Give the backbone structure.
Amino acid sequence: MEYSIVIATRNRLKALQLSVPRMLAQSRPPAQMIVVDSSDDHAAVAAEVRKMVGDLPIRLIIKHSERGLTLQRNIGLELVEQPIVFYPDDDSIFPGVAKEIMETYERDSKNLIAALCAAESKIPPADFPIGKAD
């Protein structure tokens, strides 16, 4: 079982520079990453995300859209190819989260689980610069 990540963002390149590498470094990395960006400088965001993903075996889609979290997430959802979708904020996803969530779905042999939420940790990873991602 694989999953897609949909990231809605606007004018938060520094936040993406922190979170995208964490998403890609998960012990269960995504099969697909969709970034729906409404930034004023979309070209810079797209270039940076492409650089961070590099040649990893992840299907990357970057779309520019009008501003609006719900709109951007719905645009991303239309492009999803996997049965499970993660909607992380553009500034956080902690190590091990994907593995835990995916293992929960895989244990659900009766398909009773419709959604899961990973609550924000009160203690972030030691190297996570909280408050420094504009």
In short: The longest strand covers residues 3-9.
